[in-house]
Amino acid sequence: MTSVDPVLCCRNVTKRFGAATLAVDDVSFSLNKGDLLGLLGPSGCGKTTLLRLVAGFERPESGEIELAGQTICGGGQWVPPERRRVGVVFQDYALFPHLNVAENVSFGLKQLCRRGELPKQQIKSLMGEAIALVGLAKMARRYPHELSGGQQQRVALARALAPRPPLILLDEPFSNLDVQVRLYLRQEVRDILKNIGASGIFVTHDQEEALAIADKVAVMNEGRLVQLDQPEEIYQHPASRFVAEFVTQANFVTAVKSGDRWDTVLGRARGIPGEGDLMVGQEDLKLTADEQGDCLVQARQFLGREYQYALLMPSDQVLQVRTAASQRLAVGDRVSVRLDCERVRFFPKEGEPIVLGRRQNFAV
Asked: Which terminus of the chain has a lower count of CB atoms within 10 Å, N or C?
């Protein structure tokens, strides 16, 4: 169970590169002790820059950053990265090739010892505990080239955890691994951090990854933090069309007024409060094989537990639909479509998105 005490607070943090590039735009958030925060967004949205600001590798133009109750940036204060007690796991692991596992993990501990921040006799015990924590105790004498990608990532994590910092930062830590290794290692890393009560921030552009392992997800776009919430809320209640498109990869269907109803590619609808677009999840469209159906299966992908279909509508709009693997349709099949109205959201041209649902008499 996580604590309500914030381990990190960022207030109005802004970073520019040159006169025109606003990389991080007035970002504020806090991270509670023991929580994992996923920074999610497309390439160039500012998530890695924000991580580097917290680590101290970049200086912001304005704003404050507070770590474990101490101001490390802002208000005339600046704590250099080596004194911030922040563990960093880099995308490329950044291991020293000439040092073995034990020596790599001990490297940062020895730096602390030289600065008088750690007794020398603790180096070996902290190193051993960190290596054991990531399951590499039997590989302590191996060198990086003798390890797999997943094992190298564990070494990088052990090195970050060894000094027992209040915060761990992970910059796209699984991007260099193959799919199967990514799937089990991301859960393993989450379990390790949770078991020791560590707080962490990880950068990713993988929606599934962020939703799967984060306690909270911060979605960024063009330098701004556009939504911060629990993964379920981000997915089910996106605050903007950008979040809906990027995170849920939902379909958007335009509603055009026609008399007292509204025309959509899924049929005529009622209960819509104005002009705008309907957000329809890929899993909210139900397909039935129907030789007389108006819709055509244009493409099919088998994803293991489910199929993803590209569905060509009579209007020539293509909708993405996901069904259980038990429902197999062939490319070229005609189908009829039924919409599960319970989770349909309406995005007006102006204002906040609205949940329609059956209670508002929405039907096609």
From this structure: N
